[in-house]
Every structure is written in C-alpha cells, then in structure tokens.
Amino acid sequence: MSRYFVLDGPDGCGKSSQARGLCEWLREQGRAVLHVREPGSTPVGEALRRLLLSPSTGHLQPVSEALLFSAARAELVANVIAPAVQNGTVVVAERCYLSTIVYQGLALSRSPGTALDSDWLLDLTRRVHGALLPDTVFVLDVPAIVAKARRRSRTEDRIEARGADYHERVRQGFLQAAAAEVRCRVIDAAWPFASVQASLRAHLARRLS
C-alpha cells in the first residue's frame, strides 16, 4: 500500500471540493496529509498548468498536450509525492495518468488525424509514475450535462470550453479506462456532496486500516 490516493474524472465532477473534504477528515484522524493537483503543485507544474489551461494558448496537438501534462506529472511525482509517501504522509491528488489516457487518448480517438497510439500513451504515462502508482484512483462519475451545469458558475478553461460531444467522450473514456484498470473505483458523483464524501471516506478507511 502506497498511501497515495487520486480523485479523477470529468471536469465538473467535484474533485477539488471532495479532495479538500477528505484531507480535512484525514487530519482529524491524526494523519499527516498532503493535497496536490495535476498539473501543478510544483513551480514547473504551475507554469505548465497556466500554459495548458489558458484559452490564449489556443490549439495544441494532442501529442504536445500529452507530453506537457506528463512533464508536469513527472516533476510532481518525483519531487513531491514520492518524498511524502516515503515519510508516511497520505497523499490525496487531483488527477493522475488516467486523465492523460482519457483526455488526450480515448476522448480524441474518434477525431480523424488526432488519435494517439494507445500503447505509446499508456507507456508514457506509466514511465512518468515509475514504481509509484496510486493505491486507488477514485473516478468521480457524473453525466456530462450535470458536469457542465456545475461549471456554469466559473469561467471555463481551454479544455473545459471544448464542445459537449468531447465532454461526453471524456465521461465514457473514464468509464472505459476504469473498467480496464484494477486500481480504479468508480464513484457516483451525481449525488449530493455529503453522500459522495461519505462513500470516499468509507473506501479510504478500509484501504488505510
């Protein structure tokens, strides 16, 4: 067990708020906790986050996106997550390799001329993580229409602003990837916050017991 847990899923699924809730609960249990996000949580990661998510960046080739997201992840895993896990800290992360497989892979696989080779993409993302893979990846599943409604109160970033068809493919991509990944556990995140949080806490308590 690595004490490294991830919340992933479509934009608008509630990753950030659920992660904050989990971290607060874990601290109440007396555990050392680190909350990180991808891309971000390192100087390089935050700079790449601004580049990747800013609408002013414009179009990027899928391979460019995959490499940039992976570069941010490499810095985070090596310089932040690995030392924390080695020190016995519980790491709660927003996103991991699964997002790259879905957003730059599965969600684009039906767009002519944009699909990335799935084996190459999986190899890239796993090489970035090395031996330190998450203990559990909680995929927060919400219908695309619900996710869009939740994003309505904020300005959409470059990727969130993509069309409804893309975001539906993102949702289906997460479900497809989760079904093939033993580390994944799908959580119905369309329920109210407290219900989703209770489900996450119950799963986490079992994994940490």
Account of the 3D structure:
The structure is a single chain. This protein is α/β, with parallel strands linked by helices. The chain has a single domain, classed as 3-Layer(aba) Sandwich (Rossmann fold), CATH 3.40.50.300. It is 53% helix and 12% strand. It contains eight helices and five strands; from the N terminus they run βαβααβααβααβα. A five-stranded parallel sheet has the order 2-3-1-4-5, sandwiched between helices. Helix 3 runs parallel beside helix 5, helix 4 packs antiparallel against helix 5 and helix 4 packs across helix 7. The longest helix is centred in the middle third of the chain and has 25 residues. The mean pLDDT is 93.
Provide key terms for this protein:
53% helix; 8 helices; 5-stranded parallel β-sheet; Rossmann fold; alpha/beta; single chain; 5 strands; 209 residues
Task: Set down the secondary structure blueprint.
Layout: E1 4-8, H1 15-28, E2 33-37, H2 43-53, H3 62-86, E3 90-94, H4 97-103, H5 118-129, E4 136-141, H6 144-151, H7 164-180, E5 184-188, H8 193-208
Parallel strand pairs: 1-3, 1-4, 2-3, 4-5
What is the compact description of this entry?
53% of the residues lie in helices and 12% in strands. With 209 residues, the protein is of the alpha/beta class.
